[in-house]
Amino acid sequence: MFSSEFISAASFVMSILYRSFCLLVRRKPIIEFLRRFLCCAAQKSLVCCIATIKENQSQQKEVAMYTDMMKQFNDQAQRMTQPMTRLNELAVESIERLAEFQLATLQSYSEMGVQQLKAATQIQDLEGMQKYAAGQVEAVKTVSKKVADDAKVLAEMGASFKTELEKMAQESQSAVAAAVKPATKKAPSKAA
Predict the structure, then answer these.
(1) Averaged pLDDT of the chain
(2) What pLDDT, in 10s, does the model give residues 136-150?
(3) Is residue 99 part of a domain?
(4) Is residue 172 part of a domain?
(5) Distance between CA 131 and CA 54 in Å, rounded?
(6) Does the N-terminal or the C-terminal CB of the chain have fewer CB atoms within 10 Å?
(7) Is residue 15 one of the residues assigned to a domain?
(8) At residue 6, does pLDDT exceed 70?
(9) By the 8 A CB rule, do 168 and 87 touch?
(10) CA 111 to CA 70: how far, in whole Å?
């Protein structure tokens, strides 16, 4: 709305225009017509200005409403995708640890194999063959122990992933339950 100062200033300007015009033209009917015309034009422009201001305020309210709506939508989308993002991060970490484990295991088994091949190339006679055969029994024990240790490590990695996954699922379930409680309180109850 317009302030009283603005309306006073507009009235003052209109009265100055009217008086100036009266001094220029001394004819009463024309002056009265112009005075009425100017007053009507001023009133219409004030009404137009007021309507424009009200329309602008309405548009600002709509923009604020849509801005709030988009902010709420973005917040909800972020809350909905956050568990999936955490799940993806956990999966990537698990894959990374598994890849590192597999590379280390591959390297150690390759080294064992290369050592056995080197030992086989050193056989020159029957005595060398007997040493090689005795070494093979020891190599099989070493490989068996290494396989068992690697299986334990792999099982621990799987258990760790499962624990983290269950923890995330429980946190997500708690978050959903917390979000649903206020919504159910706000929902109107149906009268029978």
Answers:
(1) 76
(2) 888 889 999 999 999
(3) yes
(4) no
(5) 102
(6) C
(7) yes
(8) no
(9) yes
(10) 59
Residue 112 makes CB contacts below 8 A (sequence gap 6+) with 139, 142, 143, 146
Q: Which of 173, 177, 146 is nearest to 83 (CA)?
A: 173
Q: How confident is the model at residue 123 (pLDDT cuts 50, 70, 90)?
A: confident
In the chain, the amino acid numbered 9 is: A
How many structural domains are present in the chain? 1
Overall pTM > 0.70? no
Q: Helix, strand, coil shares of the chain as percentages rounded to 5?
A: 90, 0, 10
Q: Would you say residue 66 lies in a domain? A: yes
With a cut of 90, say whether residue 107 has pLDDT above it. Answer: yes
- The helices-and-strands tally (H runs, E runs) of the chain is 3, 0
